[in-house]
């Protein structure tokens, strides 16, 4: 799958998921209550997902967004393991794998971004 297509698919997933959380859809509220998480955490995850989804659509940030969302998906997978939600764990693992793939495919972009953000040694 080409990098742009992978980014677009992931963006769609995260924008939809984050949007559902920010809209306070009943199934999201029920899930966060079932897991014992506070509602502010649902909103926080929704914001992270929406910002990450937007980042996936921006070529300079796409790989970094993939890396950040991969880290977030580790928490999602942990939640599904703790609550024995095996079907949701499979879905989260697929999304995690896709996010890791996007980050890996753009690892040189992430390195270049990190170099650009380093302060210049000659600036005094």
Chain-wise SSE layout:
Layout: H1 3-22, H2 26-35, H3 39-57, H4 62-82, H5 86-105, H6 107-117
Descriptive account of the structure:
This protein has 124 residues and is mostly helical. The chain is built from six helices and no strands. It has helices at 3-22, 26-35, 39-57, 62-82, 86-105, 107-117. α1 runs antiparallel to α3, α1 (3-22) crosses α5 and α3 packs antiparallel against α4. The longest helix is centred in the middle third of the chain and has 21 residues, at 62-82.
Strand content: under 5%
SSE series: HHHHHH
Mean pLDDT across all residues, rounded? 95
Count the helices. How many? 6
What low-confidence regions span 5 or more consecutive residues with pLDDT below 50?
none
Number of E-type strands:
0
The end-to-end distance, rounded to whole angstroms, is 46 Å
Reported for the largest beta sheet, the result is: none
Helix content: over 70%
Classification by helices and strands: mainly alpha
What are the defining features of this structure?
81% helix
Summarize the structure.
This protein is mostly helical and 124 residues long.
């Amino acid at each position: 799958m080409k990098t742009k297509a992978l980014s677009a698919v992931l963006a769609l997933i995260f924008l939809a998921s984050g949007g559902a959380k920010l809209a306070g859809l009943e199934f999201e509220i029920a899930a966060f209550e079932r897991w014992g998480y506070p509602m502010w955490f649902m909103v926080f995850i929704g914001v992270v997902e929406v910002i990450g989804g937007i980042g996936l659509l921006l070529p300079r940030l796409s790989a970094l967004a993939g890396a950040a969302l991969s880290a977030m998906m580790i928490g999602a997978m942990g939640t599904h393991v703790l609550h024995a939600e095996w079907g949701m764990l499979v879905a989260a693992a697929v999304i995690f794998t896709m996010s890791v793939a996007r980050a890996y495919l753009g690892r040189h972009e992430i390195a270049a971004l990190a170099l650009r953000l380093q302060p210049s040694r000659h600036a005094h």
